[in-house]
Amino acid sequence: MSKSPVFLTGCAGFIGMHTTKRLLDQGETVIGVDNINPYYSVDLKRDRLKQLEHPNFHFHEVDISDRQAMEKIWTTYEPKRAINLAAQAGVRYSIENPFAYISSNITGFLVMLELCRHQKDFANLVYASTSSIYGSSTNMPFVEDQMTAVPISLYAATKSGNELMAQSYNYLYGMPATGLRFFTVYGPWGRPDMAAFKFTKAILAGEPLDLYNAGKMKRDFTYVEDIVSGVVAAVNRKPTNKIGERHPIYNLGNNRCEDLPRIITLIEETLGKKALINNMPMQLGDVKETYANIDKAKAELGYSPQTTIDTGVPNFVRWYMDYHK
Ligand SMILES: NC(=O)c1ccc[n+]([C@@H]2O[C@H](COP(=O)([O-])OP(=O)(O)OC[C@H]3O[C@@H](n4cnc5c(N)ncnc54)[C@H](O)[C@@H]3O)[C@@H](O)[C@H]2O)c1
């Protein structure tokens, strides 16, 4: 009997494209959904989709908050595994356009929960959470069971909301779910609103790059292929539902806390060109430091990140140059 397909939302996105590609390479069938919204370059999203052309990839251009359209696709395939990556991402944009976050991250997520919980023999909904839910906590490295109820952005609040919503479905209906808290993901085909992309673009253009808080920030940077390994391991592990216990939630980071300016140095070295710096104050909603404890993901998912920024950042820069000719 052939394996049931994986339903994956956000497939034209950065992490979604890489995850879909890996699943297809492993012989899976993927039902991909994305609304190709213009939060950043639609061309980049369409170019990512071109990387996914494959007989086992079935793409549907739909908004996950559109309940009827989603039901129609879902019932065509009746998937038993789902990965929800579609979301309005970005901490800073949640200050400009808060409504986009509620529509995609809360209403859209509810649609996914409803579809999964009515599906017979449903095995696992893996969904993207974020390191941002640890807020300004200085209790590092962050561990999954520490307190996360003090979000400092609406983006973080919606992602915390996803964890709570999934937990209520897990309790009420025994619906299997797995939450993954991603830590600053970067790599080829990355997002234009993220540091590596913005820095590379500015350095190549000979323009000053905005460096917030004089660069006094630290991040646990995680290479996209390592994240994908965690996502794929999670979707293939059926979580056990125990009433009164939380559904599994894992940090997916690199377990290395790097100074942000180190990224600039690595980009400069790869390009052979110096950056011009425009120092800016700390941004509202941004956290100063992230650092993941990944022991739980190591033990239960066999998660083992392989890529340091010394390899990953040059890989990104080479992709950027190639893609932009
Ligand atoms: N990249 C990171 O560093 C990072 C860190 C923590 C968490 N995450 C989370 O991981 C997930 C994927 O992130 P990404 O970096 O690939 O972002 P991305 O923006 O590149 O991908 C998200 C995709 O979802 C689509 N989308 C958004 N709203 C939608 C909707 N309502 N209906 C259908 N499609 C919709 C977008 O068009 C986009 O292609 C997101 O949930 C994000 O919040 C990412």
From TrEMBL:
Record keyword NAD present: yes
Record bears the keyword Amino-acid biosynthesis: no
Classification via InterPro entries: NAD(P)-bd_dom, NAD(P)-bd_dom_sf
Biological classification of the source: Bacteria, Pseudomonadati, Pseudomonadota, Alphaproteobacteria, Holosporales
Taxonomic superkingdom: Bacteria
PANTHER family named in the record: EPIMERASE-RELATED
NAD(P)-binding domain mapped to chain residues: 8-313
Span of the signal peptide: none
Residue intervals passing through the bilayer: none
Protein name: NAD(P)-binding domain-containing protein
Keywords: NAD
